[in-house]
Amino acid sequence: MQTLTITRPDDWHLHLRDGDAMKSVLPDTASRFARAIVMPNLKPPVTTVALAAAYRQRILSALPAGASFQPLMTLYLTDNTPAAEIDAAQSSGFVHGVKLYPAGATTNSDAGVTGLAKCDATLARMEKLGLPLLVHGEATDPAVDVFDREAVFIDTVMLPLLKKFPGLRVVFEHITTKDAADFVIGATSNVAATITAHHLLLNRNAMFQGGMRPHHYCLPVLKRETHRQALVKAATSGNPKFFLGTDSAPHGKRTKEAACGCAGCYTAHAGIELYAEAFDASSALDKLEGFASFHGPDFYRLARNTDRITLIRKAWQVPTEQAFLADDVLVPLRNGENIAWSLQE
Ligand code: DOR
Ligand code: ZN
Q1: Domain ranges of the chain
Q2: Fewer Cβ within 10 Å of end Cβ, the chain: N or C?
Q3: Confidence of residue 259 (pLDDT cuts 50, 70, 90)
Q4: C-alpha 190 – ligand 1 centre gap (Å)
Q5: 247 included as an active-site residue
Q6: Residue 106 Cα, ligand 1 centroid: separation in angstroms?
Q7: Residue 160: how many CB atoms within 10 A of its CB?
C-alpha cells in the first residue's frame, strides 16, 4: 500500500500549553486532527468551567486563519472540586472530561488529588451524568519503582475506584504496560485507554541509546520491549476500547536538556504519521482508521468526522528543531531523522 485515505483523526490527549508556546505548536495539531482533548495542566491549572471557557477562547483565537480545529476542554480535578462544577461542565457543551492527576505524579500535578476518597461526591456526580474521568495512572509513592508505577496504580487506585463507581466512564490515559492493556481489555465497556505513538514505537532503551536521551523522557516513562509489544497488539487489535492520544507535550530544549529535565515528548509535528509507521510495522494499516478516527468519538459520544486525510508512504526528514518561544526552541521526536509516512497536503 502506497497511500492510505482515512476519516480525519482526532487526538484524544494533547498538551497545548498557553500564550506564545501554544501559538507555535497549535498549527501542527490543527493541520492533522479535527479535534483534540486538551489537557488542563496549565499554571495555574484549569479547575473550573469558567477557566476552561477562557482557555478555549484563547485556543480558538490562536488558530491559523481558516482552520476548523475544535478544542475539547477538560477540567483539572482537585481535592476540592465541587460536585456542582460537574453539573456546569456537563451542561457547558465544551467540557468533555475531568482529568485526575495524582498529586506529584507529573508536570504541574502539584494541585492534583492527594486522596481520591476526598472526591467521592464529585466522582458520584460524574458517574451519574456520564462525564468521563481521564486518568494519569501512576502511583505516587516514591518507594514504588518508576517502572512499576502504572501496575501498582491499577491495584491500589483503579480497581478500588471502579469497585466504588462501577458505572464511571474512565479513560486510562497513555497506557504503557501489558498490565494496563490487559486491565482495560478485561474491564467493563465504560473503561477505555489512549495510547501514544512514542510508546508504540520506542522501548526504554531509547532513553539510553549511546548516552542520556532527554527527548525520549516522558511520563509514564517508556517501558521494556514486552510492554511495547503488548501496546502494539492492543492498538492494532480493532478493540474499540483503544484509541489515539498523542500526549504531545512540548517543553523548550533548554528545559529538556537540563540537570533535572522536564518530562514530555513533542510529537504533534507528525501526530498521525508516527502512528501510520507503527501500524505499518505490524502490517495493520487497515486498523489505523478505527483507532485514530472512530473509537475515540464513539467513546466520547461525539459524531465521527466526515472529511478525510491521505497518508503517503514517502519518507521525510524531521527538522532538528522548530520555533517555540522567543528564547527557546522545541526538539521534535525523530529530530534529524526520517519518518516513513507523509501527510498529503
Ligand atoms: O511526559 C509527560 N508530560 N507526561 C505527563 O503526564 C505530562 C506531560 C506534560 O505536561 O509535559
Ligand atoms: Zn499528558
Answers
A1: 11-304
A2: C
A3: very high
A4: 25
A5: yes
A6: 6
A7: 12
